[in-house]
């Protein structure tokens, strides 16, 4: 999967219209909450077969931090 495709999927589950940039802080996303975290975990599992924990996602501060959890599965 390409990085832009994953970012678009994340945008869809977070229901945001703005472009997601690598350095964007997750706390700046209005709907970044526990439901969003669970949704990201499910998305990574479904699309990338990457198993991550809520603690790993909670430790992320930026979009790039999230992308780093893909274990090199992005093109």
Automatic annotation (TrEMBL):
It comes from Paenibacillus psychroresistens. Residues 1-74 form the Carrier domain. The lineage of its organism: Bacteria, Bacillati, Bacillota, Bacilli, Bacillales. It comes from the Bacteria. SUPFAM superfamilies: ACP-like. InterPro entries: ACP-like_sf, PP-bd_ACP. This is Acyl carrier protein.
């Amino acid at each position: 999967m390409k990085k832009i495709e994953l970012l678009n999927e994340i945008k869809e589950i977070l229901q945001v219209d703005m472009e997601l940039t690598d350095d964007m802080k997750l706390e700046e996303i209005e709907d970044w909450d526990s439901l969003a975290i669970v949704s990201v975990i499910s998305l990574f599992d479904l699309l990338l077969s990457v198993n991550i924990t809520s603690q790993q996602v909670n430790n992320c501060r930026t979009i790039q931090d999230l992308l780093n959890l893909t274990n090199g599965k992005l093109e």
